[in-house]
Design brief:
The complex is a heterodimer of chains A (115) and B (115). With 115 residues, chain A is mainly β. Chain A contains no helices and twelve strands. In chain B, strands 2, 4, 5, 6, 9, 10 and 11 form a seven-stranded mixed β-sheet that branches. A four-stranded antiparallel β-sheet of chain B has the order 1-3-8-7, with no helix packed on it.
């Protein structure tokens, strides 16, 4: 069974600071990787995803993530955060082989950005 | 365009009562997932449908939990003889196809409180 670990549960930053949220997973096969965001009062929505090709993927609102296969990691980055980035961020892993396409989510990271 | 719709948004029930939670996925979406999300945690998989077929129900916590999607669109999650530990947010997500590289589209969730 796969698992997902998000090391930072709560992050507080000032506007214009750089952001990196960690995500590590355990699974022996090939995977598809996702970051979802939940803004206050809204539903979970896709931020970016990786399933093949360039391991550096770009998403909405200036976010990017890098898949490092050897480290089983898919960390989320943004060079300069804004107050509107205040939200919960969830990393998710979905096996791409083995027939069971059940995603596993991390417990989430709460990001607060001070203006 | 219409997203995933869940109802009710909030449900309060007394311990021992039965509850039914509804999910209306995006029209034409083949796959539908139910998750349970406890406070401060990520979504935990409950069950998954492809069209009307329930392909995996390994995440249902007990036989008090039952889900159906009889016509391959709307789905209902039923919890019988509710207990306090059932209190959580129940999320529904739909996926356009059946591949694991496709993102999930989430509803706003139903917040269930058992007194």
């Amino acid at each position: 069974a796969q698992s997902v670990s998000q090391h930072n549960h709560h992050v507080i930053l000032s506007e214009a600071a750089s952001l990196e949220l960690g995500c590590n997973y355990s699974y022996g096969g090939t995977v598809n990787l996702f970051w979802y965001v939940q803004y206050p009062g809204q539903h979970l929505q896709l931020l970016l995803k990786y399933f093949s090709g360039d391991p550096l993927v770009k998403g909405i609102k200036g976010f990017e993530a890098e898949f490092i296969k050897s480290k089983f990691s898919f960390n989320l980055r943004k060079p300069s955060v804004q107050w509107s980035d205040t939200a919960e961020y969830f990393c998710a892993v979905n096996p791409s082989s083995g027939g069971s396409y059940i995603p596993t989510f991390g417990r989430g990271t709460s990001l607060i950005v001070h203006p | 365009g219409a997203g995933v719709s869940q109802s009710p948004r909030y449900k309060v029930a007394k311990r021992g009562q039965d509850v039914a939670l509804r999910c209306d996925p995006i029209s034409g979406h083949v796959s539908l997932f139910w998750y349970q999300q406890a406070l401060g945690q990520g979504p935990e998989f409950l069950t998954y449908f492809q069209n009307e077929a329930q392909l995996d129900k390994s995440g249902l916590p007990s036989d008090r939990f039952f889900a159906e999607r009889p016509e391959g669109s709307v789905s209902t999650l039923k919890i019988q003889r509710t207990q306090q530990e059932d209190s959580a947010v129940y999320l529904c997500a739909s996926v356009r196809g059946s591949g694991s590289n496709q993102p999930q589209h989430f509803g706003d969730g139903t917040r269930l409180s058992i007194l």
